[in-house]
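Fold this sequence, please.
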Amino acid sequence: YYQVWNFNRGIHGDVHTLLEKQNRADIFCSAFNIDPSNGNVIIMGGDVRKPKRGFGINAVLEYEVKTETIHNHPMGNMQYTRWYATSINLPNGEIFVIGGADDGSNSENGKKNGSPFPEVYSPDTGFRVLTNAKVPNIANNPDETHWWYPYSYVNSKGDIIVMGPKGKNADIYRIRYEGKGSISRIGTKPFMAHSRTPCIMFRIDKVVCLDDKGNLWVADISDSSKVGWDKPNNIGQGRTNGSMAMLPDGRVAITGGNQSTKQAGNRLSTAEKSIQIWNPNTNNVVRGGEEKKARLYHSNLLVLPDATLVSSGGGAPGPEKNHNGQLYFPDYMSADTTRPIINDCPRNVESGNRFTMKVDDVSQIVQVTATKSGASSHSRNCDTRWIDLDFEIINDTTLRVKAEGNTIMIGGLWMVNLIDNNGVPSEAWLMGVDMAALP
């Protein structure tokens, strides 16, 4: 079965739709994105499950939003089998997929290896293999899991920066995806981090990662020939199997995970249940309340359009199997808070263009921000990003806002927020950028 949550209906009662499985593909630990060409969700790879689990499949499915159905993708399957792959949207409307375990057919002893060649999905022609972008760490180290959800981000030049997930020999590559592609090694991660530790793009060309000792590391990926690193703070402990999400005001929320890497970060006694919020502007880290449940392997963190956070899941395997979630209300959500309001805004815009927003009162507005919806799984949300948008005041209730170019405001679904002079965000306006028309 598949499940769809309609958060507009709330968190209790009849808010979930259960969809019966209509095909044989098992999408456990797959990769997924919103396809800008039609607004549907494309789901790539997963687990063969039978006769033995943990081997990749090349199946591609499509979740059709309007009909709430899942079916085999009309453009066919991938060329390579993938289980635990990473996928991200590209500036030209295509989708890049990298890594993941194969089906074992390419090894002499039947063990799974990584799929060494990335692929690119085009809504017009389906999948093509980047035959000139073979990933050395995946291809040359079959006994190491360099294929495990590689951290992948598009920089402002339009290049893909891929950081290996392993603590050791975590090479960094620049990949270009035109034609048959190309790949260059441009560095190595300077710290030890379990492959299940979170990273997120929190500013243009800036990615923050957590290491096993609790250090925050910021990667500057603006230069496609090298990556610069800074270590701005320490949050007090590691968070193996933890998650990160972007708040509308540009702060980074960190939840779940484990203080230890033992038992692959799935030990209940050292589970980290508190939320921490890092402010990149001030470098302050604030610790908040604790969750009732441990959010370990297969847990998740998402920011919702109303600016709350939902922390959910965990288990399979795990010391707790949590088919549940909790809401977190950040400090800007106090009971007496008056929030700015977006009264009207385009549902779709083109990257690089300006658009008009109708608001309740421009005199209180200090920021207009945008957060890409992304796709969160396994301590990753490589496809999300946060942007501080330029704007100008037209009159008492009207703003003109500049959408960034397509290498920064990459095509897909975005949440646009107003931030007032008290730091309070509006509810988000869902906007498609370089995307099929939203209803």
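The first strand starts at residue 2 and ends at 5. Residues 136-140 form the longest helix (5 residues).
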